Amino acid sequence: MHESIEKKENGMPLCWREGAVLKLQNSRALVKIKPDEKQIEIIIKGDNKRGALGAICNELNQINASIKKISISKLIPCNCSENCPERYSYEKLLKAEMKREETIQCHESYEHIAISLLLDGYKRREERVKKFNEIHSRTTINYGEISISNDNIHIHDIVGPVNVKARLDHVEQMVMSAPAVEDGKKKELSSLIEELKEALEPAANAKSDDTDRVIEDAERVAKEISREKPNKSHLLSITEDLKETAKAVENIAPLAVKVATKIAVFVTGMF
C-alpha cells in the first residue's frame, strides 16, 4: 500500500518505523504497531471508514497468509463512550450475533451495547456470516492481535438484513440522554422513533441499503439533538434528508415517509 501513504507538503511520506498515515477511500487512516502489546491499531476518519478499513485488513490478511502457523485476533472497541478501554473479540461478537443475541455488556460502563453497531463498521452482515462459517471450519493459532478502532463508525451501509430494532434503540438512547430537550419532548420523540422502527421492518430485507440510509439519517438527527446546543438550521437540513431517504422504501414500507415527516416537523419545532 505504498502508493496510499500520505505525503507532507515537501513530498516526504508520512511513515515511520512503527506506523504510517494512509489516504484511501476518501478517508485517512493511522496504522500503528504497538510492539509491547503485540497489536496493530487502526484509526480511521473520513467519508468511507469501512471501505478504508476493509482495504487495510485485506492487505494485512495477505501478509499473514504468507507466514506459516500464524493467525490474528481482531478486537473491536466499545462505543459506549469516546475513550472506553473495553475491547470485544470480533469472533465472539460474531458468534453472539449468529445466536441472535442483540447486546453485550461493557465491563467499564456496564451499559448494554448493540452488537450490530459494533460489527457493522467492520464488515457487512453477509460477509460476517461467511466469516463465521470459515472460523468454524478450521483450527487457528492465536498469535498477536489487531486492535481495530472504528472511530465511532455507526456503523452503516449494511448489505443483507438490517437490524432495525437494535440501531433505532440506540437512536432512542441518544434522544433520551439529550441535555437540551425537555423530558416530555424526549418521550414524544422516542415514540416517533418507535413508529419509525415498525414502519421500516418490511424493508429491512428487501431494501437493506435504502433502509440503512434512513437509519443513518435518524442517527444524524439524534446526534445533533444530543448536543449541548443543537443547531436548528442543521437539524432542518438533516431532517429533510431523512424524509428524502425514506421515499426510497415507500413502495415496500409506505408508512416510513409519513413517520419521517412527523419526526422532521416535531424536531424542527423543538428548538
Automatic annotation (TrEMBL):
It holds the Pfam family COR-B. Keywords: Repeat. The keyword Repeat applies. InterPro entries: COR-B. Residues 1-121 form the C-terminal of Roc COR-B domain. This is C-terminal of Roc COR-B domain-containing protein. It comes from Methanosarcina acetivorans (strain ATCC 35395 / DSM 2834 / JCM 12185 / C2A). The lineage of its organism: Archaea, Methanobacteriati, Methanobacteriota, Stenosarchaea group, Methanomicrobia.
